[in-house]
Amino acid sequence: MKTRLILTVAASTLLFGLPAAAPALAQTAAAPAAGSVVVPPLGFQERTLPNGLKVYTSRDTSTSNVTVQVWYRVGSKDDPEDRSGFAHLFEHLMFKATQNFPDETFDRLTEDVGGNNNAFTSDDVTAYHETVPANHLQRLIFAEADRLGSLVVNESVFASERDVVKEEYRQGVLASPYGRLFSLFVPATIYQDHPYRRSTIGSIENLDAATIEDVRRFHATFYRPDNAYLIVAGNFDQAQLDGWIDRYFGPLTNPDRPLPVNNVREPEPTGPREATFYAPNVPLPAVVLAWPGVRYDDPDRAALTVLDGILSTGESSRLYRSLVYDQKIATQTSSSVDASQQAGAVITYAIMAEGETPEAGLASLRAEAARLRDAPVTAAELTEAKNELVAGALRERETVEDRANVLGWSLINTGGAAAADAEIAALQAVTAADIQRVARRYLTDQRSISIRYLNADDQNPVTAQSVDVDAPVKVADLAPVGRVFELLPESQRTPIPAAGPAVDLVTPAVETFTLANGLEVYVARKPGLPLISARLGLAAGSADDGAKTGLSVLTAGLLTQGSSGRSAPEIAAEIEQLGAQLGASSGADFSNVSVNAPANVFPQALSLMADVVRRPDFAAEEVERQRDQSLDGLRVSLSSPGPVASMAAGRLVYGNAAYGAPGGGTPDSLPGLTREDVSAFHASRYRPETARLIFSGDITVAQARALAEQAFGDWRATGPVPAPRANPAGAAVAPRVVVIDQPGAGQAAVYVAMRSIARTDADFFPLTLGNTLLGGSFTSRLNQEIRIKRGLSYGTRSNLGVRQGEGAFVASAQTRNDAAVEVADLILGEVNRLSTSQPTASEMTTRQAIVTGAFGSSLETVDGLGGAVASLALYDLPMSDLAAYVGRVEAITPEQVQAAFAEHLPVANASLVIVGDASKFIDGLRAKYPNVEVLPLTALDLDTAALK
């Protein structure tokens, strides 16, 4: 299912300057029927408490975890007038204190025991979800009930979290080049009367207008047992769980008033509409062509969903084939069916290529809509789309958390659980005639909405967000505040229940063998869902690019763009016919090619994976196409503070050494890469004797051996053996302080960076644990200081960045421009604290749980398990480390953490780079660092350590 939220996330790959995902590809001519993959039913039990709380449970003893989710039927459509963003703001407040436990307790109950927690707000729902080791289930049932019944909302928490939401707004909307388009302007233009036209995150003006009384009344109105679904899935005893739910949720009561009426009907369009918007730092024009669609429970949603798959799923899709591949007028294009509870839309968009016009993009989008209206889709397209959707549904059921999510969306949008399972049959029943019918009904020119999104200039100023928008719910409609809760004295609190006996984590055995050509093969069996993953790791990374920066990434990207005479769309069609996923990527040290497919078609998918690895065509036109797309993507990245800071940090850490160059290339290096360069790199670096092949999922060793022999047994390298890699990290360089000035930037990106360690270093585990304490989790020191205490950032993070050679440690945050110096000081101070003092015993215990819990969770999917095995195999580490991982983490001492940070990450070695509007912070920074280097973004040169 694609929603507006998912559209925004998908767009963020290119649009917001994040690293591009490897393209999904391929299938085979002998494609299976759509019904050949069996998607198991969700299998939840249902009951309703006397207070109206609906409870759904599903027991699964194959996992050591349990997920608890509470889905409240309140979303951004319910934000009161002049209070947009309220539901989302309240989502943040729900993680604070209750009368029985203090702020941040939910993090103590989840992250600190090896689990995780999060929440999200959408048009119709606010949902809270936690996954923890199963022995902590009772504690979460107690905590969820307690925050529903006795949440504490005080002035300090309200003010702090409102500031955090403002930073989230600045980061996701203002600092991202296409954030305004998808978060603000698209919904505001599509919906005329419905409150879906308001942004979920709201506006700075409406957030500032909110009062603590408003917030308390909002909670009293919508957070009630009869307006919620409780979902529990995982390893538990059913009778025991039922008793806990009755004990903690049963006594909760509902207000003596109904929920506010909110059921606006969106009018049928009377004619086409157009709008043009302007924003700062838009590197490439964007266009959107949309139409009002249907509600989630409308019978036509199934046909529109299949239509959407034909339009934009994969590189064989109509939009990609037309706009990106054939015409070369767009660098990215996609579509989405936004089917919410009360209304919906069909949305197509394109990010134009350099030099192309919005008019060309809109004309091509209209032409593709007309094709759907004028003629039936082909049988191959129909089969392909169905297979992809059914295989996607299978992947959505891999973990207990996945299955609970699928159920939650069904409950919110239909009021029942049956739709989640019935959807598979509905998709499989769609015909070509159905698709043409819905295209003629909904995708007409008279119903269309055209949007142009362009860079602002002196003649076209930035388009302001509209904040004066009517809404069906008024502040006056909210329930009275009622009882105001405060944290009770500790002696009066109801204690949080103790954890139960632990359920041990079981790591699968990994078996290995080597083919005659030297290819090492690893098999990690995970029976259960009929899914199998294979990944091939190759000793070819950006450290091997030499003077041709970007060559390794370009080579990996071209693998799926033609092999054995098949074109890129033909390869994509083959993979998509199978419902498989095929992709290739390259990092600093290794390249990776992976495939994930339903078990019944996995042999065909693996065969195609082997073909693109061994026999890529590297056609000249494909090299040019991929190079141009990379350049357009780079233009987008260089318009956003975070990616710019990340690329500059590499140069500050490594100077002109191989690791210092941006892996994806630079505006100057990419145009010089040729077909001959790519072919030579592939011939030399893609070799069986230095590669590792990892199978994971529902596959035996015997099956894996047969498949590996068939696909790779006769593989031989065709080029000369490459010379041993010289030290890619180079000699140490002196630390620097650099500002890259981007006038008008919505936020500043603050990065602290220095050399780290190799993955095989003896201090890997102490530094991993220390990094988790520093910035590797929500409860980390950096997040506590910068987000929770001061509200200066939506989130902070740090990463060891380990590699084969010396890695690159980075700690970063995005903040409002005027706070950049304060945030830099806070990051540097916390890095230094780990070098000069030992973590407390409590910090050690909780961080050990976080690290081991994340490790255990990673093994629950076939791709996660394969990734864990690959992380050992590629660094020539023993497979016994998989089973030993938990023990090694638990054996780390505070002394080891401090000593490792003092030796490897002393703050004196750190460089600082800040990208943002320098006029807002440069004076304060220069007072601390008189030698600060200031570079305009327009003069940035990533091909040299000098950056200019």
How would you sum up the major sheet? 6 strands, mixed
Strand order of the largest sheet: 1-2-6-3-5-4
What is the number of beta strands? 25
Helix content: 25-40%
Task: Give the DSSP E fraction (strand runs of 2 or more residues).
Answer: 15-25%
Please tally the helical runs, counting DSSP H or I stretches of 4 or more residues: 31
Ends: how far apart? Answer: 46 Å
The residue-averaged pLDDT reads 93
Radius of gyration: 27 Å
Unreliable parts = 1-35
| SS class | alpha+beta
Shape summary: globular
Description:
The protein is of the alpha+beta class. 39% of the residues lie in helices and 17% in strands. The protein is built from 31 helices and 25 strands. The chain has a six-stranded mixed beta sheet, with helices on both faces. A six-stranded mixed beta sheet has the order 12-13-19-14-18-17, sandwiched between helices. Strand 1 (45-48) and strand 2 (54-59) form a beta hairpin. The longest helix has 20 residues, at 155-174. The chain is globular. The protein starts with a helix and ends in a 12-residue tail after the last strand.
